[in-house]
TrEMBL record:
The keyword Transmembrane applies. This is SPW repeat-containing integral membrane domain-containing protein. It comes from the Bacteria. The chain crosses the membrane at residues 12-30, 36-54, 61-82, 94-115. Keywords: Membrane, Transmembrane, Transmembrane helix. InterPro entries: SPW. Residues 13-106 form the SPW repeat-containing integral membrane domain.
Length: 123
């Protein structure tokens, strides 16, 4: 697994981030949303998916996983911040997808740190 972590487009946790982001973006298609819920899920999901793609393309970039943790936390708290906790399915989507994004990002941090340490002197 540590050997795979230095090659672009091979890290499974980054693919998981892309999938979680895409599911968040598309979730308004199958859950009842209002404007705030829909745009929270779409924007946060797009940022999560884009961060995953960036991490896949540039595996030595340590900031991608840190940003993933932050984006996951923001998606998780979005039902309270944006005021759509009364929309149960949209709220649970944000809580589950945000929590999974946060967990995957936190689990990927040691791998990214190791990859960054191996590639730090290579320019």
């Amino acid at each position: 697994m540590t050997e795979m972590s230095t090659r672009a487009w091979t890290r499974p946790h980054d693919w998981a981030e892309v999938v979680l982001g895409v599911v968040a973006v598309l979730s308004f298609l199958w859950v009842n949303t209002d404007n705030a819920a829909m745009w929270s899920l779409v924007v946060m999901g797009a940022l999560i998916a884009l961060d995953g793609l960036l991490s896949l393309a540039m595996p030595g970039l340590i900031y991608g996983e840190g940003l993933q943790v932050v984006l996951g936390a923001l998606l998780f708290i979005s039902p309270w911040v944006m005021g759509y906790t009364d929309l149960t399915a949209a709220s649970w989507s944000a809580w589950i997808l945000g929590g999974l994004t946060l967990i995957v990002g936190a689990a990927a941090l040691p791998v990214a740190n190791a990859a960054h340490g191996r590639t730090a002197g290579q320019h």
